[in-house]
Amino acid sequence: MSNDNQSTYLQENRRYWNSVADWWAPRGEAAWQRREPVWGIWGVPESEVQLLPTSMQGLNAVELGCGTGYVGAWMARRGAVVTGIDLSERQLETARRLEADHGLGVTFVHGNAEATPFADASFDFAISEYGAALWCDPYLWLREASRILKPDGRLVFWTQHPFAYVTAPQDGSLSTERLERPYFGLRMMDWTAAAEDPGGMEFTLPLSGWFEALTAAGFVVERLLEPQAPATGPDEAFFVSRRWAQAYPSELAFVAHKPG
Ligand SMILES: C[S@@+](CC[C@H](N)C(=O)[O-])C[C@H]1O[C@@H](n2cnc3c(N)ncnc32)[C@H](O)[C@@H]1O
CATH code at 20? Predict the structure, then answer.
């Protein structure tokens, strides 16, 4: 991957993810071993949301911002031929080590999910769980996902809900019940000066913005999910408390279709 002309957020996100890759490795190891996929910060079971086709036999699938690659592993176990792309060399080291351990045949590529090396119409299925969906500019990565999907292809992504950003203090602490910043105009969140876990620049949009960006990229939205935190479980997860996320939406997922 060329380093030329990379935007500030690409450089920062590559640095950040290389620096935290060791912390994420044990989570990746555990997730590769799971037979039943679970999604997001609350571990929503696949049986509740049905984001993956039960059989992916014969499908070419791509994971955009694959990290340690466990979503790719889940798709490969369902029969898909899987490629994962990620900006962080260190995250890919973990992904390749776990692929060597499990032997599922997942291919990992180093690159930017906003401008991939893949040919037009290469894939039947594209997915991102907190990968491109959080760390790439929506107006760039959605257009790229549409380009590399075949007609009739499907896109699934899961990420942080814009409401959780509206209530997120700038110091990086848990979301509050106060409005900390405007909803309209949400796009990039710069966490490099945060007191807690400093580093990284994330992206989100207001819900209407997600619909607009998906439509502009040529997708038709099939489903929007706003999963609620479970009634029992850990008291907090990453950026929110469970109590908060029982009352307000911490995450969202979209399923979209590229018309044939
Ligand atoms: C939270 S991980 C997502 C993977 C996995 N689902 C998980 O939750 O651990 C975020 C990943 O996005 C990757 N990433 C950030 N910016 C990216 C970009 N422009 N292109 C591809 N991957 C990117 C990071 O390197 C990191 O591995």
Answer: 3.40.50.150
